Amino acid sequence: MNVFSLLDRTARRYAAQPAIFRGEKLICDWAALHDRALRLAASLRAEMPSGARIAVVAKNCPEYPEILFAIWAAGLVAVPVNVKLHPREIAQILKDAGASFVFISGDSAILQQALDPEEHSCRFVGIASAEYVGLLNLETAQPADTSPDALAWLFYTSGTTGRSKGAMLTHRNLMSMTIAHLADFESLRPEDGILHAAPLSHGSGLYILPYVARGARQIVPASGGFDPAEFLDLCNAHENVGAFLAPTMVRRLRMEAERQGRRPKGLRSILYGGGPMYLDEIKKSLETFGPVFQQLYGQGESPMTITGLTRADHESADDAKLSSVGWPRSGVEVAVVDANGNPLSAGEIGEIVCRGDVVMSGYWNNPGATEAAFLNGWLLTGDMGFMDASGRLTLRDRSKDVIISGGTNVYPREIEDLLLTCPGVAQVSVIGARDAEWGEIVVAFVVRDAGAEVDEAALDAHCQSYIARFKRPKRYVFVTELPKNSYGKVLKRELAERLNRET
User: Fold this and answer.
1) Any idea what the CATH number is for the domain that residue 454 is in?
2) What DSSP letter does each residue of 376-401 carry, written as one string?
């Protein structure tokens, strides 16, 4: 089993159908993509031993899919890296992965300076450079015969709590993810397309696979990233467009659509995940775009695939359903357990665990972290939540984010959801701060809407109307923005460090 087979079958069936677009411009059909990937694979195989790690440090670009499929056709391992990371962070990933070959967009000089040549050296090839074009000159060869359990993708975590770890995703993992997507979310056709506005190094890149499996178009914005106005324009230029977006992107897209006063006619679906989508925001987005939304809950360790809410779930949703992360995905078992791994009853909060063919084999070169990530064959997600009697899962928080105040657990997500319904609040993040009397107290960092004058008294009065006293923030900190990583996740550790500096 080699995930290259997805491209191989599609190229045979839909050879002359459009495959890759850059903005509105057609770049190649499926036959040409297949040919280029195999030529590139022949060059990589001539230089690299089987199983070698090949990094991709690039903005979203039309060459990204052909590079990934070339790596797999050559029997090698893809290491996509978010180009927005600091050069030192990228260097750490390249060193950890043992990557000997790097496809890069832009100038590699800064990144090369961050690498200690005595510790690690790489060959850098600029995407679309003359050197890159030269790699396409070899004759095509048959793709490698790969074991289903061979490593295919080293998925490096976003590093919100420290150094990134490489989740080892096999060909079996990626194929299971692909099948689950097609079973649960989208019945794709060649007339459909995916707009890659989110980084191809992570979520959007993983969704290359199910779309390729059905011959659906890959559309890369000319900007190489997410620009809300460009996104809306492309949804009008193309038909039947889907996309994977982080919740922060959904919010920005909604605000731009409201500003322009238009709903994109070609927008077919938005699959959101990768961070908390608050109830107030999804309700506003449904009003703006209609029932185009689907939600996934997953992690790099179980790529994009733990639970989900379908489009139909959003159409008929009440607040409880919209506040949840849905039901277990096809091929995945999900449970909520106590600290000893014992299953909990419906409604009881514990750690979320999962298992199935989609779950990673472990962390690259990190047996200690691998051992800590599993319990009796179940992946420990580190997330807290509960299931109702129907098996629907609702998240509370990361286990490390739970605030224990006066011996009672307080879940920041619940308070964040509430504060976002207060007029004048644009964004909010809740953390715990050390306290001599209570152990921890609840602190809310709040970003106001432009021109809003909401103050601490208004926020406290709002909370007083809805939640118990012990859950209410004892302190509000007003900020102009929340610190976020390159994927839009709030860096709560930076907020905690700010509080520590002030005490």
Assistant:
1) 3.30.300.30
2) TTEEEEEEEEEE-TT--EEEEEEGGG
Determine the structural domain holding residue 33 and report its residue range: 4-387
CATH number of the domain that 359 lies in? 3.40.50.12780
CA atoms within 13 A on the CB side of 273: 27
**Residue 218: its H or E element:** strand 217-220
DSSP 344-368: PPTT--EEEEEEETTS---BTT-HH
Claim to verify: residue 304 and residue 376 sit in the same structural domain: yes
> Which residues does 432 contact at the CB level (< 8 Å), separation at least 6?
401, 403, 404, 405, 410, 412, 440, 441, 442, 443
Mean pLDDT along residues 143-171 = 85
**Can you give the pLDDT at residue 225?**
92
CA distance 156 to 299: 11
| 3-class secondary-structure state, position 34 | helix
Whether residue 350 is found in the same domain as residue 463: no
pLDDT at 164: 78
Question: Is 415 found in the same domain as 295?
Answer: no
Structure confidence at residue 474 (pLDDT): 93
What's the pLDDT score for residue 107? 75
Give the whole-angstrom CA distance, residue 323 versus residue 385: 12
- Torsion sign, CA atoms 326, 286, 180, 490: negative
Residue 396 included in any domain: no
Nearest to 362, CA basis, from 76, 137, 170: 170
Kindly state whether residue 395 falls inside one of the protein's structural domains.
Answer: no
Residue 236 lies in a domain: yes
CA-based torsion, 161, 429, 207, 370: positive or negative: positive
How many degrees, rounded to 5, is the angle at CA 443 between CA 441 and CA 448? 165
Distance of CA 24 to the CA centre of its chain: 25
Strand partners, 383: 398
What confidence tens digit (pLDDT) does each residue in 100-137 have? 999 999 777 777 777 777 777 889 999 999 999 999 99
In the chain, the percentage of residues whose pLDDT exceeds 70 is 96
pLDDT band with cut points at 50, 70 and 90 for residue 78: very high
Residues 194 and 99 in one domain: yes
Q: Is residue 393 part of a domain?
A: no
User: Residue 191 CB: number of other CB atoms within 10 A?
Assistant: 13
Global pTM exceeds 0.85: no
Number of domains in the chain: 2
Beta bridge partners of 302: 299
Judge if 266 and 414 occupy the same domain: no
Mean pLDDT of the 16-40 span: 98
The predicted pLDDT at position 192 comes to: 98
Query: 190 and 225 share a domain?
Result: yes
Say yes or no: 371 and 469 in one domain. no
Give 403-419 pLDDT, tens digit per residue. 878 666 787 888 998 99
- Residue pair 381/351 in contact (Cβ under 8 Å)? The answer is yes
Regarding whether 218 and 266 lie in a shared domain, the answer is: yes
